[in-house]
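Minutes, project check-in

Agenda point 3 was the complex the collaborators sent over. CS summarized: two entities, 671 residues total, and the question is how they sit relative to each other. Sequences were read into the notes so everyone works from the same version.
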Amino acid sequence: MSLNPASQPLVLEAHGIVKELGEGAGRIMAVKGVDIALKSGELTLLMGPSGSGKTTLLSILGCILSPTAGTVSIAGTPTAGLKPEALAMLRRTHIGYIFQSYNLFPTLTAVENVRIALDVAGVTGAVAIQKAEQALRDVGLGHKFTSYPAHLSGGEKQRVAVARAIASAPSIVLADEPTAALDSENGHGVMRLLAQIAREQNRSILVVTHDSRTLMYADRVIHIEDGKIVSEEHPAKAPVTELSGKAILAAAPVAVAADNTPAEKPRRKSAPQRTKEPAEAKILTDLIQKRKSNA
Amino acid sequence: MILTLAFRNLFHDRIRLAVTLVGILFSIVLVAVQLGLYLGSSREITSNIENAKGELWITAFGAKSFEDGGTLLTQKERQAALGTPGVKSVAPVLSVFAEWRKPKGGSTRVVIVGADAEDGGIAPFRLVEGTWEDIKAPEGIAVDKSYLSELGIDGIGSTAQIASGRVRVRALTDDIKSFTQSPYVYMPISRARALLDAPGNTATFHLVTLEPGANLETVRAEIKSKVAPAEVLTKDEFLERSLKQWLFNTGAGAALIGGALLGTLVGTVIVAQTLYSSTKDHINEFATLRALGSSSGYIHKVILAQAGMSALLGYALGMVLALIIVYAAQGSALPILMTPALAFGLLVLTLCMCAISAISAIFKVTKIDPATVFTR
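CS then shared the predicted structure for the full assembly.
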């Protein structure tokens, strides 16, 4: 089932998020007054260079870090003042996580890795097994139930992580660099899967990345730099089913400034053939620079 | 899944598991042997008191134990007790260290237990050869068969000399060991008095048997008022006093209990160390669990389950070894006792030991910052 994200309710809202890290003279402001909202059925990319504060922001939105200032609301529940155990309950109820380095349990099989997330969420017994197996089937790993992480490829590991994140049907899935450790084909496979989950299962997915290969799957792209959101784009992307692992930057981004006003016209209707990653990074940097100068 | 994860974490590093199990095994065996020795000693110290039928013991003031009763009591205390309402019988018991001269030369120390079974005194229990009637025959005595070699005799019919008179073995007991390693020699009280040249009617203790329905405390108070400064002890008080004398005043019990505590301490430290290192190795997984929204309690349960599994495995192995040692020590002068209560107590101790060991690991995971999952 595919729904129009614009008509979907907000599942996460954050206003004026500030995060200071470190102590004394080494204290830095990693996030500087960010406003962000996530809707169901939408795949949002949070892009920016290293050190821009995107992972810190992701941790705050995922109730792992508390903001120095600002408010976060998950499914209508404000997180301010909640104790660690209450925040953990919000995470297991509403949020699924996907990590860059998979963070699978090496001593558990694929299906057990998914089951443990369900167990944490209070789903146990035969229901948990059924849900875990279904989640693995959903990510195309129906034949790998009893495989240990050591016997899975990088792409398969990340798909197990995706299955783990979606098994308990959270309204929000937060992914930290999910393609960073994957080759091109597996990276596209995982992104295609996330886009499909966002649309068909009506989840809100936020992907932190600096991988420009992921642009084509996004409903929305948020650019962050030096702890501030510098722009937001709504790329017109191709249907998920038409996206191939080889297609690169197929959709033209429609850039908007942070205040949601259009910043520029689509740069291109179709992306040039991808040659290597640094070139893509340069395109992205140019794009951001141009947007800055326009602003 | 908690048990699955705990089990996999435990068996993931088999060398560490082996170290953990060896630690628990060592601890269990040490504690089992020490406490088994303590129980064995206690049984030896108290066996005569336990097997006596009377409810009250009249002793000289400050009597320390069954073997060390102090100055002899006279007929006066016996008569006073006999004249107290509620008293059914008063049996004199003579318990005194004496020199046993072996028939082929040499001597050893024994404890003469002189009493008349017919009067409600102490009869040699666990008789395996001969009867009380045989013992009453001229020169008759009963000794434990495990001390035949120590006493330099062969068995029934053997003769030896105690103090000034000759004795003949007419009955044998089984498994009445002496904590002091001075064998008990049972005989009628008149023979004991004669051998020791003790004045007639003297005794180390008077063993009081009450009429059915008589109030112990009332009878005791009345006897006490009549026999002062002699003491009137209940069976439990006399047991306690004897145990205190031999186990604690001599330091033997303290050494045994100290050894058991040391075993527990060593086991706790080893298990704590290995659990901590296991937790440290799996810290990323625990951080992931935390990021996925697990409660602290969930993670604590995983660690406690690991500790519990280690405890059960270590206990099973430790008990097997402990039982082998108990079996091997059966014929020794100081046997090690393994009772169901001790076995259960050791299980509880092992579980507690491992639970305590988990504290450092739990502290470690309590400090986990789930944000670390993004930096690994």
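Noted in discussion: DSSP finds twelve helices and ten strands in chain B.
Follow-up: revisit at the next meeting once the mutant set is ready.
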